[in-house]
Design brief:
Helices cover 51% and strands 8% of the residues. The protein is an alpha+beta fold and 215 residues long. The protein folds into two domains: 73 residues, 3-Layer(aba) Sandwich (Glutaredoxin); 101 residues, Glutathione S-transferase Yfyf (Class Pi), Chain A, domain 2 (Up-down Bundle). Helix 4 packs antiparallel against helix 5 and helix 4 runs parallel beside helix 7. The longest helix has 27 residues.
C-alpha cells in the first residue's frame, strides 16, 4: 500500500523510551556523524499518531529520510551504511559481508530474543532461568573476542553497533558476567568509551554500568 510521506531535509528517527533497538541505530548515526531529529513516541502522542501513519506496525526504530520510510533496525543500519559510506561498517568482500550479516541475525535471534523476554517477564523463576541462559550464551563467545580487536573483526562494524546496547543493559537486567569473561567485559568497556557510543546515549537510557563482571 502506498503511503504519502512529506519530504524532509533532515533524517527523522522515531524511537521509544530506552529502546535497545533504537539505540543500535543511534550508534550508527553517531559513527557516521549524521545530523538527525530524534522523536520519542512514548512521551509524544502526536508523534505516535504520525508513526502509525507511516509504519503499519508502529515499531521502533522507524527512520524517515526524505520520502523513504524504513523500519527494523538491521535494515535501517545497512541502509545508513550505504547512504553514508564513511566510515564503512560492513566488510567490502562478499564472503566477509555474508558472515557479518549471519552474525547479526544470530545476535537478534539468540540474544535479543532473550532480552525481550527478560524485559517482559514478571515471574521470578522464569526471569532467573532467562538471565542464566543469556549469561551462559554470552560467556560462550569469550574465545572469539580474545583473537580480534572487535567482534569478528579488527575494525569496528555493524556487529558492534548491534551488540553494544545489549551489553549496556546487562546491569539493568541484573546479569553479572563471571571473572572468566574478562575479554567480554574489556570489549564492552572499549565500546562504551567510544565517542560515538557516548553520543548515542539519550537521557532515558540506563546509566553506565558500574561493573559488568564479578568483583
Amino acid at each position: 500500500m502506498a503511503i504519502a510521506v512529506t519530504k524532509r531535509s533532515t533524517i527523522l528517527l522515531y524511537t521509544g523510551n530506552a529502546d535497545h533497538y533504537s539505540h543500535q541505530v543511534r550508534i550508527v548515526l553517531a559513527e557516521k556523524n549524521v545530523n538527525y531529529e530524534l522523536t520519542d513516541v512514548t512521551v509524544d502522542t502526536a508523534a505516535m499518531n504520525q508513526l502509525i501513519e507511516v509504519n503499519p506496525y508502529a515499531s521502533m526504530p522507524t527512520l524517515i529520510d526524505r520520502d523513504l520510510v524504513l523500519y527494523q533496525p538491521n535494515i535501517i543500519m545497512e541502509y545508513l551504511d550505504e547512504r553514508f559510506p564513511h566510515p564503512p561498517l560492513l566488510p567490502i568482500y562478499p564472503i566477509a559481508r555474508g558472515q557479518a550479516r549471519l552474525m547479526l541475525y544470530r545476535i537478534y535471534h539468540d540474544w535479543y530474543s532473550l532480552v525481550d523476554k527478560i524485559m517482559a517477564e514478571t515471574s521470578r523463576a522464569k526471569l532467573t532461568a532467562l538471565r542464566k541462559e543469556l549469561r551462559d550464551s554470552l560467556v560462550g563467545i569469550v574465545p572469539i573476542l580474545k583473537d580480534m580487536s572487535y567482534f569478528m573483526s579488527n575494525d569496528f562494524s555493524l556487529i558492534d553497533c548491534c551488540f553494544a546496547p545489549l551489553l549496556w543493559r546487562l546491569e539493568a537486567m541484573q546479569i553479572e558476567l563471571p571473572t572468566q569473561a574478562k575479554a567480554l567485559t574489556d570489549y564492552a568497556k572499549k565500546i562504551f568509551d567510544r565517542e560515538a557510543f557516548q553520543e548515542s546515549i539519550v537521557e532515558k537510557e540506563p546509566e553506565e554500568p558500574d561493573q559488568l563482571g564479578d568483583s
